[in-house]
Amino acid sequence: MAIRGVPRVPSGVRERPRLVRRFDGPQAVVVAQGPAGYGKSVAMAQWAAATAADGIWVRIRDGNAGSAAFVQHLAAELAAAGLLDDAHPLLLATEALSGGADPWTLLRRGLQALHGPLTIAVDEIDRLTPECVNGLVDVVLDVPQLSVRATSRRRGPLNDPALALKLDVAVIGATDLALTPDEIADALSIDVTSPAVARIAALGGLPILTRLTSQSLDESSLSREGPTQGVIDSLIDAEIASRPWDPRFALFVRATSVADSLDRALAAELADIARSTLEPTDDVPDDVGALLARAEDEGLGLWTGTTRTTETFTYTPLIREGFERRLRFEQPRLVETLVRAVARWELAHGRPFAALRRAVELRDWELASRVIRTYWNELLRNHGQQLRRLFHGTPLSVLRRQPLITMLLALEYNRTGHHRLRALEYFALAGHAARTQRDRSAPADRVVLRAIESAALRVSGRFDGALVAALDGRRILLAMSPDDRDGLGRVEPTLHNQFGTSLFYAGRTEDALDSFARSTSVGASKGLKAGLQGMALSAGALAAAGDLRESIAMIEQSQALEWPEGWLTGYMGSFNQLAGAFAALERWDADAADRHIRSLDPHRETIEHWPLLAHVDVLVELLRGHPERARLALDAEMLMQRRRRSIAPPTLARLAHTRSLIELAAGRPAAAERALGKAASARRSTGLARIALARAQPDDALRHLANPAASAGDPASSRSRAEAMALRAGALALAGDAGRAAVSLGELLEFMANRQQGLALALVPAQALDALLEVARVSTIGDPHELLEGARAHAVIGSLAPAPSLTPREIALARVLPRAGGTAELAEMLSVSPNTVKSQLRSLYRKLGAGNRAEALIALSVMVLSEEPAGSRRRGDTRSSD
């Protein structure tokens, strides 16, 4: 069995197994569809020569495109292949059709009379009339043993989406037909990394271009340069020379080749520009639809899209580059006008990088800024490295006047992780440019410039300036009319996000949440994905503030939405992961919290939220009981950020509380106190209260919590309120004030249940938690044992009882006690009498709270003995492990 009538494959053409497999697929119809030069017929011939299927090859030529002519031609090919017996109805197809027989009824009956499966390979099926193709499809539906393999230069009835409802059709498109880099290298017998391979791939990977290149260059030239312009021009000249192209069509192709792809409206605009420039006396409009259809028929390109309103025409890269190059040489001024029209179309049709590339080519910085303002997020997300290459070499004199461009570059360099210094330079330049231009700008531009300024200052660690810019920009944005806000386009949610982030880091959480909510609302109403970032920022800000009920609801809501690939574990969704981590920490689930934070590791170095992530890392290790590991991780993080120049004094102040927790959990209360610094604040007062409670000094803890600084500034967040309430309840319980402790505990538990918190209790020193458990046991406040016992099981901070005040002689005795065997040996080691040793031992045991030598040795094992006179110590300084 074989396919009869297969044409000869040109010598030197390599096998392409991946295409052969596609033709051998199970579908009833497989069509290879692409412009001229993609090797459709060769690929199908290679399959036909190797397949085990039985059938015939049919080449459609002028004159046999109609139904009757096609069926007659098909019958003749079947007869020539010896597939028709003497009684077969198709053997007399010519006579039957001449007598008025319906061609498709005749073909259907004839194919049903054949025995076994049959495959018809139709080369250039697009030459058939649509009615003829539809007739063939109907026959395939009625004759199960029939399958069709075909080639086509353009779309046709086989591309109708409705056809898939009744017939399996596979289309091998131009991207599939194009040679892969490996196939190009194999065809040219050169290394795949050669510039020639990249050049041919950029021109569409056309098999015909690869063959011409191989024939025209020697081996050394191939490895260096690939197809020369002469090869490209000769191929294009051959295409033109072989076809009767009138001047009007040739001008249309040259003018429209400037666009990578185009719809009918853009084609008409480009054709009008070219005609009015080159033929100003000709006022006859072009029939653009007919000209594009002819371009497709000529194999110059393909239509893509499913409807007339969404479809675009794309020239083969080789054809496009060849004609555009000629036009640039012959009419450079015309090209500039055409390119500007294409850039405007690309901007309007959601192709930001293409539009930006053309704007830079034209040095049209106003257009470039408009593209950036409209597609800020998309450009950063999808075209990072391309942006750096695009603006490489742009003069500083330009960047100083173009804050949008400079800010885009700053954000791109900042997120790479290896160009922080360059990013800081661009941030400073963008901020300066924004400040110098905002006063003379329209409201829409002014608010964008304020957002740039705020973001630049914030990322540079200048939080006060970032807050001023954010407040002013937010004021302008909220005061704008609906028409002015429409002028912001796609960037409006991003503006709310940027202002909200600066407000959040300035401690203005409620204002920040309002901005994030506006971002989400605008994004939802306008179908803009940047609103999803507003939702993530809301979830993270709520969780950081301790409002877990609302944060969890926001996370659940966001999980039902479709996020772009990579957003949830990148900068855009980092606060969603932060929210998930805080929710896990409130359940004391360190492993779940760690999974959320680790998902951000690939971007950790460049995310500006690293201090919050570092704080969560510390809490994870503290819950696991590893304070030293927490300290090492924080030190490493801060060292890396110092090298990136990402640490500012406000950041250090925020991490002071984190550092204090580590030191206290490690049993170093004095270091914990030093970490808090001297500046009065609510967080410092809470930290000092926790240290005092760890030292079993409840009165001092209550004094710190009552300090006016503890309630200074903005209203306390739910998290800080829970921490202060938990420490107050623990202090009252440890002080023995059971009545007030019970009331305070009841208020605490009700508040934490409402906020879905649990972490604040785990940060209460263990001895105070034990006292709270005793208060709960004898009180009537309900059944708080589960929460308290869970917190006690995950307590981060052990209790540090004050070290006893030992005399120098008692310290000397304590030092030799572990090495001595008895009283006599102790007396000898200390050069005193045994009675003196006995007296000193009684005093030492009493101060240590020990009843015997073994208990005394246990107590001494956790102490660091000092020669410092007892009276010189500060009140509460244990000196036991710090």
Automatic annotation (TrEMBL):
Annotated InterPro entries: Sig_transdc_resp-reg_C-effctor, Tscrpt_reg_LuxR_C, WH-like_DNA-bd_sf
Q: Where is the HTH luxR-type domain?
A: 799-864
The organism's place on the tree of life at top rank: Bacteria
Using the record for this protein, list the coiled-coil segments as residue ranges, or answer none. none
What's the protein here called?
LuxR family maltose regulon positive regulatory protein
Q: Which organism is it from?
A: Conyzicola nivalis
Question: Where is the organism placed in the taxonomic lineage, from the top?
Answer: Bacteria, Bacillati, Actinomycetota, Actinomycetes, Micrococcales
